[in-house]
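Quick one, T. Sequence first:
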Amino acid sequence: MVGKKTGWERENRTHFDEIVVNYDKARWYYPDELFTDIIKYSGAENKKALEIGAGTGIATTPFLNAGYDVTAVEISENMAEFIKDKFKKYKNFNILISPFEDAALEDGSYNLVYAASAFHWVDAEIGCPKVFRLLKNGGTFALFRNNAVPFDGDELYEDIQAVYNRYYYSHYKPHQRPTRISKMSYEDFLTSSEIYRGFRFESLEQYGYKDITMKLYNASQTYNADEYIALIDTYSDHRALPNDNIVALYAGIKDVIIKHGGQQKMDFIFQLYMGRKL
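C-alpha cells:
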C-alpha cells in the first residue's frame, strides 16, 4: 500500500544509528560566523551549554573550543559511543543517552541550550517549555538548520526531480511539496508556517522567550555523484523509503549527475533562530 507519511515522523529518529561513520563524513558543516553570532548573543561568563540531538558532534566542537562545558543529549546509542570517543580528550564534555523529552536535567542550569538540525525530532509542546526551565535567567535558546537551495530552471535539478517523481513521490503523498527555498525572502523565513516547517513549532514567543532574532547565512558546496548519494542517505525521509525505492532513487540520481558532468553544486541557506529567557 502506498504510504501517506512524510518520512520525518519521530519514530525515524533512530535511522541514523546504522550509518554513524558515513553520517559524520557526509553531513554539512555550519558557517563559523553562525557560531560566533550565537556566542556573542549569549554573552555568558559561566559557559554551560546543553546540546539537543548532538549526532556525531558536528556542531559540538565550536562550543567546546570556545570554553563551554557541553552536555550533549543523544537518543542514538551508536552515535553516543561515536561522540564519546570523538571528544574523549575534552574534560568539558559529557553525554546523556536519552530522548530529550525524557532526559533528567537540572532546571536553571544552562546559559545556552542549542540544537543543530535536530529540534524537529522533539515534541515541541514538551521540549520548548523544558528548555525554558533548564535555562538560567538571561540564558539563550539557539536553533539552527540548513536549507538546500535548488537552481530554478537548472536542467540537472529538473532531471533529478523526475527521478524523485518516480521513486520518492510514488511512496510519499504529502499535501504539498517542499517550498522552493530559492523563491523565499528573509521575511518568509520569519513566518510561523516556515518556523514550523523547520523546527515544528510556530514561534519562540509563544513559549515565553524574548529578544527573538533570526539570521541567515549563505554557503555552497560541490559534490561528486557518490558524495551526493552519501549526503542524501543521511536524510531520514530517504532512509524510511522501501528498499527497492531507495536503490532505484539513488541509482537514478547518480546516473543523472554523471550524465551532467559528474558534479552537483549545492547552495545552502543556514538559518539561526534565537531567543532569551528573561
